[in-house]
């Protein structure tokens, strides 16, 4: 099923800079709407319920799974994350561009539900840089960082299944690349035909 809006999915291993890039993109582009996922993990730092995530209990999450309420859900670092099917569908039908910031498992599941979704993977420039970013973040104990590094091997092995790859070596360059992908998708024939139907009709173009 085709929808008027575009669906973008951004995935990356922890520490690659995915969240920072998505936050910066949204500050430049008000036409990109975030999808707020549900998660069973506890809030971090200044995160608020309904803004970064919908924080819920395992029981609540189980109920949503039973009711087929998720497009995708996955177990990441021992906690579960899920994307609301209705929330995404309603925005796309209204012609809005939606951006999902999820792990690679969820991204591939979204592709099954929405074949037209644009999948974007963020890579770090090196293993040393990835470890440095995780350590400098100051959020995880050393043993947790080791788990994240090990998981990154599995996650980055899936990069060939994505449409676009951005290497986040210099943040400004990576952000430019992300904005370019979003803009290019909007310039495709199908998108332009939907958004500027008046021009096509005035030019007698079908």
Automatic annotation (TrEMBL):
<keyword id="KW-0808">Transferase</keyword>
<dbReference type="InterPro" id="IPR008145">
    <property type="entry name" value="GK/Ca_channel_bsu"/>
</dbReference>
<keyword id="KW-0547">Nucleotide-binding</keyword>
<dbReference type="InterPro" id="IPR008144">
    <property type="entry name" value="Guanylate_kin-like_dom"/>
</dbReference>
<protein>
    <recommendedName>
        <fullName>Guanylate kinase</fullName>
        <ecNumber>2.7.4.8</ecNumber>
    </recommendedName>
</protein>
<dbReference type="GO" id="GO:0005829">
    <property type="term" value="C:cytosol"/>
</dbReference>
<comment type="similarity">
    <text>Belongs to the guanylate kinase family.</text>
</comment>
<dbReference type="GO" id="GO:0004385">
    <property type="term" value="F:GMP kinase activity"/>
</dbReference>
<dbReference type="Pfam" id="PF00625">
    <property type="entry name" value="Guanylate_kin"/>
</dbReference>
<comment type="function">
    <text>Essential for recycling GMP and indirectly, cGMP.</text>
</comment>
<dbReference type="GO" id="GO:0005524">
    <property type="term" value="F:ATP binding"/>
</dbReference>
<dbReference type="InterPro" id="IPR027417">
    <property type="entry name" value="P-loop_NTPase"/>
</dbReference>
<keyword id="KW-0418">Kinase</keyword>
<keyword id="KW-0963">Cytoplasm</keyword>
<feature type="binding site">
    <location>
        <begin position="12"/>
        <end position="19"/>
    </location>
    <ligand>
        <name>ATP</name>
    </ligand>
</feature>
<keyword id="KW-0067">ATP-binding</keyword>
<dbReference type="InterPro" id="IPR017665">
    <property type="entry name" value="Guanylate_kinase"/>
</dbReference>
<feature type="domain" description="Guanylate kinase-like">
    <location>
        <begin position="5"/>
        <end position="183"/>
    </location>
</feature>
